[in-house]
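User:
Hi there, any thoughts?
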Amino acid sequence: MLPHQTPYVTPHILHKNYAQSHDHENFSNFMGQDLEYFSQAGFDMDRIQIKRNAPVALLYEDAIRNEGAIISSSGALINFSGKKTGRSPKDKRIVYEETSKDDIWWGSVNIKMDEHTFEINRERAIDYLNTRENVYVFDGYAGWDPKYRIKVRVICARAYHALFMHNMLIRPTDAQLAEFGEPDFIIYNAGQFPANRFTKGMSSTTSVEINFKRMEMVILGTEYAGEMKKGVFSVMHYLQPVKFGQLSLHSSANVGIEKGDVTLFFGLSGTGKTTLSADPNRLLIGDDEHVWSDTGVFNIEGGCYAKCINLSAEKEPDIFNAIKYSSILENVVYNPLNRTPDYDDVSITENTRCAYPIEYIPNAQIPCIVDRQPTNIIMLTCDAFGVLPPVSKLTPQQASYHFLAGYTSKTPGTEDGVLEPIPTFSTCYSAPFIVLHPGRYAEMLADRMAKNNVDCWLINTGWTGGKFGSGKRCPLKYTRRIVDAVHSGELAKAEFENFPTFNLSIPTGLEGVPRELLNPSLAWADKEALQKEVRKLAGMFTKAFALYEKDVDEKVRHAGPQI
C-alpha cells in the first residue's frame, strides 16, 4: 500500500476512473468472432467502448451521469424519452424483399420500404453510434420455449435503452451468454439521431424499420423505448407462424394454481386485460405477448411494460410494488424534494410507463411457459354504447369473427365536446403490430380452438343499463365474479338465452351477479334507446368487417350481427 493511501477510503474516491477502467476491461467481453462482426458491421472498435450485458448498477450510473436520469424514492430509475413519448406507427416500415413479400399484409400498418433506403438508414445509425463514447449491447432471448425462442441483440447509445431491454427480454445466464453465438435478430437503436427527410420514402425525421431478409431493425429519430419491444413482437408475429408454424398472440395468459388450466385474455388498452389476468388464485404466465404452440403456451417476454397513469398501491398492488431497483419509469413526473413519482401527473404524457422483470410479480409462473393447451379464451371489450352483454359464450365461428373485428370503444373526452363513444376496431386485438394477413392468425386460432375444444367468452367490462353518460360501468366485482365462474367451469354449465341481432348466448343466471345485469334488454330501462344503439353498433361492426369479408369463410361472415 502506498504511504498516502488510507485503508478506509474506497480507491474510487482517490482515483475517479477506477470503476470506469475496470468496466472497460470487464464488459466488452466479446470473443474474436463477435469483434469481427462489429468491425464488419462498420463499428469503429478503436473509438467506441462497447458495454455488453452491463450490470444494472453500471447502467444506473451511466444513465444518471450522462442522460439526466433520476433514482426514484422506491429505487426505480426515472428516464425521459424526449420528444416522442409513444410509438410512431406512421413512421414504421417493412422492407419489401423477395423472402417475405408474399407473406406480409401490405397497407397502412405495414408500409413498404425499398432495400436501398434500409441500407442508407442502417449506415446512418451505425455512423451515429460510432460517434458515441459508450455503446451498449444487450443480448437476450425472445420466447421462453427453447424450441421456438430467438436470440436478440440490441445495440444502442443510451443506458436507459439497454436497461429497458434488459428488463423486457429474457435475461441469459452467464453460461448462456458465453455461448450466445450469432443473434437471430439485431436492433440498431440510434434514436437520438434523426432520419434524413430527403431520403426516398421517409415521411419525417423518425423512422422505425424492419428487414426480414437481414433480420435487422433500425430506429432513428425516436427515443421511445417501446419501439424496441414492439419490434421484437413484430418479428415474432412473423417468424412464429411462417417459420415455426406456431401462433403468436397479443394477449395475456394465466394458469390455475389448483387445476393447472390455462386462460388466454385478449383485449385492447383500457379493457382490463392486465387487471383481470392478475388473479390471486392463478399464476401469471405473462401480461402482453404469447405464443400458443403445439405443446402449450409461453410468454415471449422477460418483463412487463405497464401503464402508470393513476397507478396506486390500492388499485394495482402488484405493479405498484414492482417499481423498485432495476425497474424503469418512463416519462413519469416526480416530486423534486423527495423523488416520489406522481402517477396522477400527465403533464409530460398520458402514456407514462414502467418496465420491470417479470419475476418482480409475486405470482408469476417462472419459467413463463406451461406445457398444456388452453382451456378458456376470454375476449375483453369495453363497450361504451352499453350494448354488449357482460358475458356471452361464443361459437367457434363467432370467436373468429370477434377476433378479426377486435372491437372496443374509447369513452368520449370531457373537454372537447365529443359526446359519442368512439368505436375502435383493431384486428386480432393487435392491428398496429400485425404482420401477416389477419385471416392467417384467425384461421390458426380457429384450428387450435377446435382441436383442443377450447371455450371462448366475450366479456364486456364497459357500460351497462345505458350508454356512456346514462348507464354505468359494469362494477369490477361482477366482472371478476364472471371470470371466476369461467375458471371454475360453473359458467359453462349455466342455462343460456339468445341476445338478438348479435346472436350471442348469454347466461340466464349466475350466483353473485344480478340477473338484470346479465341481459342488456333487462338492464336498460329505455328499451327503444337500447334498440337504437344495438342497430348503430351492429352497423359499425358490419362496416369494419367489410375489410376481411372476401378472405374469410362464409360461416364466419354470418357469425357477426345480422341487421
Remarks:
- Residues 373-558 form a domain with the Phosphoenolpyruvate Carboxykinase; domain 3 fold (CATH 3.90.228.20).
- Residues 226-244 form the longest helix (19 residues).
- The CA atoms of residues 267 and 380 lie 5 Å apart.
